[in-house]
Amino acid sequence: MAYAAGVDVGSTQTKAVIINEKRQIVGRALIDTGANVVRAAENAHARALSDAGLREMEVEYIVGTGYGRYRVTFGNTQVTEISCHGRGTVHMFPGTRTVVDMGGQDTKAIRVSAAGDIVDFCMNDKCAAGTGRFLGAAAAALEIPLGELGPRALLHQKPVRISTTCTVFAESEVLAWLGKGKKIEDILWGVHQSIASRSAGLLRRVGVEDEVSFTGGVTRNIAMIKALEEKLDKRLNVSEDSHFMGALGAALFALDYIISSRSPREAAEIRE
């Protein structure tokens, strides 16, 4: 049994996934990226190995992805995060044709083929208003742990409208609403709606197909899922592994290399 690995080094968190020849996830890890990107990649991979109960030598091929993919110094090659998210998402949700990937610094709208190939994509330009960073600014302004934003936002009654298009000014607008006596829950839902509106705009630029999947770190925010579903009027594909989709796609590309390097007969047997 051969194993392949993918390491997705994001701006905020680093993810690692190990799969077997049957394309099943056997190990995964998630850590904060921090200042030392090389060490984050190494630590995430080591933890994924431990989770899988494998030794380093048992993993035949490793693909790095994410903004820090070139810092995966122990990897064999690199693939862009857009390609990896497309590949990983279609593997997990075969009916997917549109992907929204929301991370700490950017949001990407991706249209994919049935094979997981990229048909079209676009991402937020320069501004982080429609990303996880915008949520982080709101959390800092309200002094609420990031993990509590989603549940609190869902308790809204009369949500406010967040008008700023700049993360730098988001904290000021949030505090202004708080100063006017607005409830934290209503402010938070306004923040989520603002992000969802910008993300929906990106998706419409590439084309919103029947089945849409949500990937990236913000998939752990239940209010963000609900806000996006309301804006798109569609139910999103989300799983417990949506946070790992880029790393999964990278691992699948790594497995492709392992299979293609074998004899035609061996490759055919693996595909079956």
Question: What are the defining features of this structure?
Answer:
single chain, 272 residues, alpha/beta, five-stranded mixed β-sheet, four-stranded mixed β-sheet, 9 helices, 9 strands, 19% strand, globular
In short:
The protein is an alpha/beta fold and 272 residues long. 42% of the residues lie in helices and 19% in strands.
Polypeptide structure, described:
This protein has 272 residues and is of the alpha/beta class. The protein is built from nine helices and nine strands. It has helices at residues 37-52, 81-92, 132-142, 149-153, 167-179, 184-206, 222-232, 245-260, 264-271; strands at residues 3-9, 13-20, 25-32, 59-65, 77-78, 98-102, 107-112, 118-123, 212-215. It is globular. The model has no long low-confidence stretch (mean pLDDT 91).
Using only CA atoms, what is the Rg?
19 Å
Spans of at least 5 consecutive residues whose pLDDT stays below 50 are none
Tell me the major beta sheet: 5 strands, mixed
Number of strands: 9
Helical region count?
A: 9
Indicate the proportion of strand residues. 15-25%
Q: Report the order of strands and helices.
A: EEEHEEHEEEHHHHEHHH
**Percent in helix:** 40-55%
The strand order across the widest sheet is 3-2-1-4-5
- Class from secondary-structure proportions: alpha/beta
**Cα end-to-end separation:** 14 Å
**Residue-averaged pLDDT:** 91
Shape: globular
Write the layout of secondary structure elements.
Elements: E1 3-9, E2 13-20, E3 25-32, H1 37-52, E4 59-65, E5 77-78, H2 81-92, E6 98-102, E7 107-112, E8 118-123, H3 132-142, H4 149-153, H5 167-179, H6 184-206, E9 212-215, H7 222-232, H8 245-260, H9 264-271
Parallel strand pairs: 1-4, 4-5, 6-9
Antiparallel strand pairs: 1-2, 2-3, 6-7, 7-8
